[in-house]
Amino acid sequence: AQTVTQSQPEMSVQEAETVTLSCTYDTSESDYYLFWYKQPPSRQMILVIRQEAYKQQNATENRFSVNFQKAAKSFSLKISDSQLGDAAMYFCAYRSNFGNEKLTFGTGTRLTIIP
Amino acid sequence: DAGVIQSPRHEVTEMGQEVTLRCKPISGHDYLFWYRQTMMQGLELLVYFNNKAVMDDSGMPKDRFSAKMPNASFSTLKIQPSEPRDSAVYFCASSPEGLSNQPQHFGDGTRLSIL
After folding, report:
1. What whole-number distance in Å separates Cα of residue B106 and Cα of residue A44?
2. CB-side exposure of A16: number of CA atoms within 13 Å?
3. What phi, psi does A11 have (nearest 5°)?
4. Residues B23-81: pLDDT tens digits?
5. What is Dmax (Cα atoms) for chain B?
6. Do A101 and B50 touch (CB under 8 A)?
7. What is the Cα–Cα distance from B47 to B38, expressed in whole angstroms?
């Protein structure tokens, strides 16, 4: 079974600075998808960014980018120019490309933005 | 297009009562997922459907939980009898069939409190 580990329960960053959230995963599969979801206090689950394992190029979405290291099974999220609205829980998630569509989530990292 | 719609948003009931959570997926989405979020277990999949058929319910306690999808635009998750340990936020999510990199879109969740 796949597992996802987020080793940083909490992180904080000064507004306008850059922060990196860590995620590692364990799988024996070669083809899969990785996601970062954001959960603000409103408890919505909002997709931040996604990465296909077969793509070597790291995904980017405006101020959000990932560092995908397939061999190391690492998938970190970098947030540049942090804004107050980025404060939330961030969840890393894995999805297989071999039949089971379920997401396996990490335990989350609570990100605080310091004004 | 409207997002995933869940009802109720909050539910407070006494132990032993039947609880019914409802979900309307995004129109045209063939996959529907029920997740549960607790402080102790994090986000975990209970059950998911593809074209109204159960694909994986290995995470659902079957003695008291049941999930149904009578048509493509409606699903229910029932708990009978409810127990205090069922207190959690229950999320419904949907995604389209086809390309596996399509993300799951989440509803706003139902916060369930069993007294």
Report:
1. 7
2. 1
3. -140, 155
4. 999 999 999 999 999 988 899 999 999 999 999 999 999 999 999 999 999 999 999 99
5. 43
6. yes
7. 16
pLDDT (0 to 100) of residue B80: 97
Whether A12 and A106 have beta carbons less than 8 Å apart is answered as no
Q: How crowded is residue A97: how many other Cβ atoms within 10 Å of its Cβ?
A: 16
CA distance, residue B106 to nearest chain A CA (Å) = 6
**pLDDT in the model for residue B101:** 64
Residues of A in contact with B50 (CB under 8 A): 101
Strands B42-50 and B31-38: antiparallel
Q: State the greatest distance between any 2 C-alpha atoms of chain A, in Å, as a whole number.
A: 45
A100: pLDDT confidence band, cut at 50, 70 and 90? confident
Q: How many CB atoms lie within 10 A of CB A77?
A: 23
d(CA B19, CA B13): 8
Q: Give pLDDT, residue A99.
A: 76
Q: B41 with A105: CB under 8 angstroms?
A: no
Q: Under an 8 Å CB criterion, which residues of B touch A?
A: 31, 33, 35, 42-45, 48, 50, 55-56, 89, 91, 93, 95, 100-101, 103-106, 108-109, 111
The answer to whether B2 and B107 are in contact (CB under 8 A) is no
Over residues A43-70, the pLDDT tens digits come to 889 999 999 999 889 999 999 999 999 9
